[in-house]
Amino acid sequence: MPKISLAAIVKCSDQILRTRDIGDYDGAANGLQMENSGTITRIAATVDASLATVKLAIAAKADLLIVHHGLFWSPTHPWTGKRRELLRLLIENNLAVYSSHLPLDAHPKLGNNALLCAALGLKKLKPFFTSHGQPIGFKSQANISRADLAKRLERATGAKPKILPGGKNICERIGVVTGGAGGDLKLAAAEGVDTFITGEGPHWTYALAEELGLNVFYGGHYATETFGVKALAAELSKKFKLPWEFLDHPTGL
Known about the structure:
CATH architecture of the largest domain: 3-Layer(aba) Sandwich
Strand content: 15-25%
Number of helices: 9
CATH topology of the largest domain: Udp-n-acetylmuramoylalanyl-d-glutamate--2,6- Diaminopimelate Ligase, Chain: A, domain 1
Helix content: 25-40%
Strand order of the largest sheet: 7-8-10-11-12-9
Oligomer: single chain
């Protein structure tokens, strides 16, 4: 079984994703979040770093866990109870954690948004939806009925989307931003789309979508963000000749 330097994998990932160049929320802490003894033999990928997914990674005999939502979104102290158990399991099982949030959303090849657009059959993508200093999503010209787009989205994610039918029945200018961008419908509409696909949003956005004349598809925060970690793990697997697997731990949200 090949053993690859953790440092080499981290350096490669940071270069691919332009980790240092992409702005993000402070809690994202993109990059290596937990190191191990320094070598990697098996990669696991999952959407969220949590006690549950760490246990799945250990069961899979992985020594590197790639995640989209990392360990530090909220205050992580004190290290008691479940947090202590998480830290203990990471150390005792020699498990490293690498996290990438907006860099993995924005990547034109491996990113959540690019890959969801491809799965929906959207072409000639243009940058869309500025967040933390850079566009992270994509928009495309199309001619797809709302019902057909809903079917495509369900096929792509495996989850039935929630639809806010505030716009026309035919979707012609579609914007895609995976995850939790539902609170930013005005930003999406201001960039000229008539249909906005994201993961989730608040209750009040239904009335706002009607006011803006905007079709909104909530495909699920988790369901729209499985693409990137899979693609990054597959890319690293190919480059370093390491086995990898996806650890599915859906939230239904």
